[in-house]
Structure formats: C-alpha cells, structure tokens
Amino acid sequence: MSFGDPWFYIVLLGLAVVVYAMLIPSRKSTTAPVNNGIGELETTLEQYMSEIEKENDELIDLVAQMKQDFASKQLAQQEQIVELRKRMIEVEQVSRNNTTIGKAVEHIAEAAPAMKTSYAVEEAVIPVSSDVIEQLAVLAADQPHPDHSADLDTKAPESVRDRYPELFDLYEKGKSIDMIAKTIGIQRGEIQLILQLAKREAT
Question: How far is 115 from 18, CA to CA, in rounded Å?
C-alpha cells in the first residue's frame, strides 16, 4: 500500500476519528471539574459576602448603640452639672443670709447699750429666729438714741486696719503677701482675708 492508494487515506482518516473519539471524553472530564470548581467558588464567595454584610450590620448596630449610650451619659452629666450649680447657688444664698443675720445680730449687740425702751426683758435664754432679729433691728432703728456719752464709757469698735497696723504698713509699701506672712508670722490665707475685710470696710 502506497501513499497514492485510496486505502491509505481511508485508514488515516479512521485513525484520526479514533484519536478524536478518545480525546472527547478527556475534554469532558477536564471541563466538568472546572465547572464544579467555579460553582464552589461562587458559593464560597456568596457565603463570604453574606457574612461580611452580616458583620457590617452588626457593626452599624454596635456604633448606633455606642452613640446612644454616649448621648445618654452626656445628658446625665449635664443634668448633674445643672444640679451641682443649683446646689452651689443655694449654698451661696444660705451663706449670704447667715452673713446678713450675723451682721444684724452684731448691730443689735452694739446698739443695745444705747437703746432705752419701756419693755422689761426677762433673763432667760430663748431661741431667736431671723424674723425676731429683723423686728428687733427695725425697733432699734426707730428708737431715739439719746446722748449718754457723759455716762457711758463706750468705745468705737476697732477697724481691721487698727488691729493690724504693721500688716497694712507693709502692704502699702508694696511688700508681697508671702513677705508679709514671714515678717509678722501670719498665714497667707489669713492675710488675704484681712485685706478683703479691709476693702469691705472701706466701701
């Protein structure tokens, strides 16, 4: 059989058909795992995206809860600050009232030797309310003050400057509070209080 014989081409064509038939199952077998792999990859990606979306939702809920908790805490702190301010104002008001009552009592005590009334005062210790003190202050202001300077040996109350002449002398010379404290042996806070009292007396 030579190359020019028709049987040669028939045999060659048959061999080609056999080889092609053998290659077709191998191609199918290779494409099937590829398709299966792609399907598994798509499933894995879908699960991964679902988990990411779920985590994002949880994170958003967590951030919203944190914001709500922060707002609640901030509101509670603001309410506490307002309450503290109210208490401070009340304490300052009570302190001012006590100072006013104390001054009224001192005024009555200083004016008592010069007061001459027709009321008999019993020697007894009784609690005195602020209303009674105010009424006594009004009575003391309305009562005439006769001149008993010849009979009574009364002295005017000393001012703060009279009590601490050395302190005010050093202060007017421009000495610092620390230097004054070391010189006269008085604490810094007490010196500041004395200076404030002197300013109040001056006004």
Answer: 144
- The amino acid that residue 75 corresponds to is L
Distance set, CA 58 to CA 47, 49, 63, 66, 198 (Å): 16, 14, 9, 12, 68
The answer to whether residue 185 sits within a structural domain is: yes
Phi-psi domain of 174 (left: phi exceeds 0; alpha: psi -120 through 50; beta: other): left
In a domain, 194, yes or no: yes
- Phi/psi at 141 (5° precision): -70, -30
pLDDT above 70: residue 2: no
The answer to whether 191 touches 185, Cβ cutoff 8 Å, is: no
**What is the enclosing helix (H) or strand (E) of 196?**
helix 188-202
Tally of domains within the chain: 1
* Number of residues written out for the chain: 203
Rounded Cα distance, 39 and 47, in Å: 12
For residue 171, the enclosing domain spans 160-203
Q: How far is CA 122 from the centre of its chain?
A: 55
pLDDT tens per residue across span 163-179: 888 989 998 999 899 99
Residue 56 lies in a domain: no
Residue 118 is assigned to a structural domain of this protein: no
Residue 115 pLDDT > 70: no
Read off φ and ψ for residue 2, nearest 5 degrees: -110, 175
The two three-digit tokens of residue 121, written as one number: 């005062």
Hunting for tokens 């798509």 — which residue is that? 42
